[in-house]
User: Fold this.
Amino acid sequence: MMFEPIARKSASTEVFDQITARVLGGDLAAGESLPSERRLAEAFGVSRPAVREAIQKLAQAGLVEVRQGDATSVRDFRRHGGPELLSQLLLRDGQPDWSVVRSVLEARRMIGTQVARLAAGRANTDAATAVQDAAEALAAATDPVEQQVHALTFWERVVDAADSIAFRLIFNSLRNAYEPTMTAMAGVMVAEVGRSDLYHALAEAIAAHDEDAASGVAAALLDLGTAAVTTIIDQLQQQE
Assistant:
């Protein structure tokens, strides 16, 4: 068996994490059947209820399909998974998966420009002030990791100003996926999070309700991070 005994308290979470890692890593292929609950419980060294709870979570995440009276089978996560899987895909063995990082940044750029436009059209005085305050806090930060933290807070305020629950939930997924990579990404993302002038410009455009300016500044800002990551990916690929 490819599984490891569980040593931590939250057994179902550990089972979920191990199976998820093997599905995303390709060790468990789409269409492959999982062992029975009994065999999984023996392999992991946990109770069958813990395995059953983990399987339910895997089904909710779109990673497996549970059929009554039949074996639980692995699903194609690319077709059935949601953005909550990005956190596992982004970081492998403590290192960023650069192709996934780049795809997240591409999605972030497309979403960010639309969110900025909505924020400029919808922001009330309090929301605009919150965005401006977040820009000030970012400008005062000097540590690259701290700058990323403040940049995420800035975008959270922009999403709040946009007043869109759909974009808010998408932002939450992207933020949760990105946060574990901040230390590894610090040297790369400084090209973006170090541009406090652009954050101020975006905050001003939102406060002025200038939708075109907000969208344009957001695109220019987010392109900096995407370009920096793309350069790193290209360099790594040339070394292969």
Remarks:
- The radius of gyration is 21 Å.
- The beta strands are 64-65, 73-74, 91-92, 95-96.
- The chain has a mean pLDDT of 90.
